Amino acid sequence: MAHNLQAVQRQLEKQVAATRFQQSKTIAIAKANAYGHSIEAAVRGFAAADGIGVIETEMLTRLRELDWHKELVLLEGFFEEADLEVLQATTATTAIHCQEQLDALQLLPEGANLKIMLKLNTGMNRLGFRPALLAQVLLQLERLKSQHKVAEVVMMMHFADADAPDRASVDHAWNEMRLVLRQFEVQLKQLGVVSLSVCNSAATLRYADELFLPNYQNIIRPGLCLYGASPMGNAEGQGALDFDLQPVMTLKAKIIAIQDVMANETVGYGSRFKATQKTRVAVVACGYADGYPRWAGALTPVVVNGKETHLVGRVSMDMMMINLNPVPDARVGDWVTLWGEGGPSIGRVTECAGVGSYETLCNLNQRVNKQII
Question: Which positions bind substrate (predicted)?
């Protein structure tokens, strides 16, 4: 994790001018228990980041308990009045994306001086204020700031398609943001806005040089790439290795049985695999209940004793089957690397399964034995 954070920083440094790079900050995204890697690992792995971003309010308290003293960001903002107390107690920054949250800020005591990230809807249509509403929003924030309920304000947006081959959506969203910054330049200066956060993983790796503005402190929010996966999957020149990203999570399971399957016999539920020749098939103690993608296809790679082979048949709840013909020395008790160090990348596995690396990393079940190294 620490290596990948450095790799992202190096990529950023290559892209942007030295002065703009020095003005940048990195908020490492650790929502969903650090994408399934554990928040404890995130505190260690992202020690060099300027802050950590999460979704869950209780994670703010947990991170302070783990001695994280740098910035904390609540990415979706608060949902309940009680959350405001947690934000104050942990001195965390909160996103603000709707009128209801703005109204709730009035409940803060004078002197709370909460730092906020004001989220704009620039086309994703998920969270954020539409630009047409911004004039009224800024007036409310000026009032809150005069009451010392709000302190620093950061402008924020999120790209819907920064990982797509076509960058038209990125250009449209970025033009919307720049138009807002020009249109409300005077009000933003009066409010003391000096920071801008627009880049997620894909935008950081691909477009940071064009998405950094010289008059702002530019705050990047890398997520998936910090865990060793590229948001562009295995696209040519855009994979994890192309950005010097190393796998963080390695998933292994043991062979618990071996079957000699004759030609024309089938394997697994639905008889999806039919042997064309005698095939040595291993049963591996991992299935979709553990978080492995259920719809992983027959050519999904695994590695046994340093040799690559592939799945056969349908992934079951607690087991999967693999072809041992390429690994004649494999025995019951041998480890099978399903993804990660010494095995296929998470990107290759999820591509074969038709799912995303995000959900697969987050889906590991609690029953899976985890070791943080």
Answer: 126, 317
- Residues annotated in the binding site, as ranges? 126, 317
3-state secondary structure of 310: strand
Partners of 150 in the β-ladder: 114
Closest CA to 58 of 26, 27, 90: 90
CATH number where 297 lies = 2.40.37.10
Cα Rg of the chain, angstroms: 24
CA–CA gap between residue 325 and residue 228 (Å, rounded): 30
The pLDDT score that the predictor gives to residue 373 is: 82
Phi, psi of 236 (to 5 degrees): -55, 125
Q: Which residues are annotated as a binding site for substrate?
A: 126, 317
In whole angstroms, what is the distance from residue 319 CA to residue 339 CA? 16
Q: Which domain holds residue 118?
A: 1-243
Q: Which two tokens stand for residue 88?
A: 């104050």
Of 202, 225, 243, the one marking the end of a domain is: 243
Q: Tell me if 219 sits within 8 A of 22, measured CB to CB.
A: no
CATH of the domain at 198: 3.20.20.10
| Active-site position among 269, 278, 307, 370 | 269
What digits encode the pLDDT tens for the residues 36-47? 999 999 999 999
Distance CA 275, CA 267 (A): 8
35 is catalytic: no
Same domain, 206 and 107: yes
371 occurs within a structural domain: no
Residues 318, 236 contacting (CB under 8 angstroms): no
**Same domain for 9 and 75?**
yes
Q: How confident is the model at residue 178 (pLDDT cuts 50, 70, 90)?
A: very high
Q: Is residue 269 among the annotated active site residues?
A: yes
Evaluate the CA torsion angle 254, 256, 262, 263 in order and state its sign: negative
Q: What local confidence, expressed as pLDDT, does residue 160 receive?
A: 95
d(CA 118, CA 48): 25
Answer for the pair 281, 321: CB distance below 8 angstroms, yes or no: yes
Amino acid identity at 71: E
* Closest among 176, 164, 224 to 200, alpha carbons compared: 224
Q: Which helix (H) or strand (E) holds 102?
A: helix 99-104
Can you say how many angstroms the Cα of residue 154 is from the centroid of all Cα atoms in its chain?
A: 21
* Two tokens, residue 262: 């004759």
